[in-house]
Amino acid sequence: MNITVVGTGYVGLVTGACFAEMGNSVTCVDTDETKVHQLKEGIIPIYEPGLEAIVRENSKAGRLLFNTSLSQAMQQSALYFIAVGTPPGENGSADLTYVLEVAREIGRNLQDYAVIVNKSTVPVGTAEKVRDAIRAELNARGADIAFDVVSNPEFLKEGAAIDDFMRPDRIIIGVDSDRAREQMAELYHSFSRNHDKLMFMGIRDAELTKYAANAMLATKISFMNEVANLAERMGVDIENVRKGIGSDSRIGYSFIYPGCGYGGSCFPKDVQALIHMGDEFSFDTSILRAVEERNQAQKQRLFEKLQQRFGEDMSGRTIGVWGLAFKPGTDDMREASSVALINRLVVAGAVVRAYDPVAMDEARRWFAPELFERGQIVFCDHQYDALADADAMVLVTEWKPFRQPDFNAMKKLLKHPIIIDGRNQYDPYALKAQGFDYAGIGRDL
Ligand code: UGA
Prior knowledge:
The protein is α/β, with parallel strands linked by helices. It folds into three domains: 2-201, NAD(P)-binding Rossmann-like Domain (Rossmann fold); 211-296, CATH 1.10.1040.10; 299-439, Rossmann fold (3-Layer(aba) Sandwich). 43% of the residues lie in helices and 13% in strands. The protein contains 18 helices and 14 strands. The strands form three sheets. It has a six-stranded parallel sheet with strand order 3-2-1-4-5-6, sandwiched between helices. A six-stranded parallel sheet has the order 11-10-9-12-13-14. Strands 7-8 form a two-stranded parallel sheet. Helix 5 packs parallel to helix 6, helix 9 packs across helix 11 and helix 11 (267-280) runs antiparallel to helix 12 (286-298). The longest helix has 32 residues, at 203-234. 46% of the residues are buried. The model has no long low-confidence stretch (mean pLDDT 96). Uridine-5'-diphosphate-glucuronic acid (UGA) is lined by residues 121, 154-158, 214, 217, 221, 255-257, 259, 262-264, 266-267, 326-327. It is an enzyme of class 1 (oxidoreductase). Pfam families: UDPG_MGDP_dh, UDPG_MGDP_dh_C, UDPG_MGDP_dh_N. It comes from Thalassolituus hydrocarboniclasticus.
């Protein structure tokens, strides 16, 4: 099939590359000329395991093209994916400026029947807005061309996006026409060969499914964080509680790991957007508000644990930080808990020495340049360098090389043997036996 994907961000690029990998002809469109130029050279602007190889191979085979002009790309295509950004707008609502601009451009250039697919995470009712925008442009040029709008949300996890796309749990398709339904079924046939992964539903149903999935996962995390905070006060080890409840198949083990708060480009934004949708429909989403509030507070827990040990004023203190990205396997810093921690430390007067295996280049952009110039934030080349003469070590992102570190070396490097473990990676009993002052999340034992 001939496919045009508009937007070469995370979702658009993975979508385009994976459809090309399945033998389709794909043109990815982006208005950013530098980005398109780089993509044509096989340079990928994001860190995503496996993506670069797929982009390069399919570009070489001529199945994956990049273009800055949507109207040019539209000459061959009958299937459009809108995968442009929906940044948080006012009051946490998703800003649809880019989505609707793409819709208008499609309307200005459409020549034959086409299916326009919303891949971006967009509020319920957006497909209707996209349809109206296209129709208005067609009317303006007196063109009577049929088209359908479909909602096909993505469920990709950063760091595992290729696998999630190629082997999805389910493919949600919100559709209101047989013609569009047939096209979508044909497109996704090869991803759904062994088990029927396709789930057709109403367009609004599909739009809400996306938000409900992320909000449910965020709720699990915030719930666990709340119980973990309670466990700390009760002298309970949350890890035992986690295993105890996860073994109930109705609860399950996934997404119940307590930590220093969820981050990324999706959970925080989508929970806020769903709260806003509730407001628009005059419905108080009190559970979601609590989820969001708990998460904001949870991002402060690491700082609070340091504060308990060092007091308000941390001038003269150095804190070693392991991990900056919002989770392992990505260089994405959006809503990362490390940002909340480091900003608080800097304000309290501490020096921060940090290391991340992948995200340091990206992370540099998240802090004021003066902080690096003044030496208040130092990014280190090695994880152990970050601990040199530090008063405490904080684990923020659970990258694999941090899982089994050399604790003897750490003890020698640290001025005080303090480990604050934001992801419950270490054994509190073993570390205490080695003389560490250890605090996890929900296991201040
Ligand atoms: C999330 C969803 O998992 C995807 O299904 C969805 O497609 C995507 O958002 C999206 O809407 O685009 P992602 O943001 O890549 O994917 O990250 P996750 O792996 O879900 O992790 C999100 C955050 O939750 C991370 O900060 C992670 O550290 C935290 N987390 C996760 C916990 O604190 N505890 C857990 O048990 C699990």
